[in-house]
Amino acid sequence: MSQPSRAPKFDLSDILAQPHPQIDLRLDAFEASTRKFLKALSNYHERAIVEITKRRERHAAEKKKLNEKASAAESETTQCKVREIELVAELEREQEEKRDAEQGAASFKRQLFALREKCASVDVEIEQYRALTSNLQREKNKESATLHAHAAYASPELRTCENRLRSVIEGIKEDQILVRFSHIDRLDTDKEFSFVLDVGSRIYRVLTITPVLPTMPIFLEELNESRDFYGFIKAVRAGFEELASPQGY
């Protein structure tokens, strides 16, 4: 950097003694120096503005990065909190499911114990039923033998009854007996008179009858009281004969 020019030295008395006094102030040099100063000042100002702009931009960039980091950290923190809440809720659900599972297991154990007790009770009942069935089977066999013996004894009587009363007695279904009479109608000896008797219970019932015999309820009541089946058959035939007589029609 050039040294500043020194102010010129002059003698005032000599200057004033001149016919046209004049002082050389060296304005050209001053103006040149001033222009250089202003130019230097302008360059400094521009450099300062550029530097300040750069610093401001760097500061803004750093501030932006810090804000982004802070935002990312805040977002991550929020996600962590949300995840924490979810994990807590999931843990509570698992604990609730665990409690439910434990309660269910305890309930199943109680049910299993009750079922085992019931099975033991059922086994006892089965043994009782087996014993009862065995007894019933023996009784049934005994009754069957008695019935066979009675049938062997009753068969001749049945045939005698059928021959005498011109009737046919046969089983048609379980506990149902069909009784058919012939030689009742003198005009048509082959005409059939019949009825079906239900003997499945203590009280006998007539299911069907052809033709309708008005006195059948009376005969049936007498049968249920006396249990005289042969007398009942005779009474029914007599009723059919009365019904078939000319006065009956």
TrEMBL record:
InterPro entries: Spc25, Spc25_C. The keyword Cell cycle applies. Residues 172-240 form the Chromosome segregation protein Spc25 C-terminal domain. It is found in: Nucleus; Chromosome, Centromere, Kinetochore. GO terms for biological process: cell division; chromosome segregation. PANTHER family: KINETOCHORE PROTEIN SPC25 (PTHR14281:SF0), KINETOCHORE PROTEIN SPC25-RELATED (PTHR14281). Component of the NDC80 complex. Acts as a component of the essential kinetochore-associated NDC80 complex, which is required for chromosome segregation and spindle checkpoint activity. This is Kinetochore protein SPC25. It comes from Athelia psychrophila.
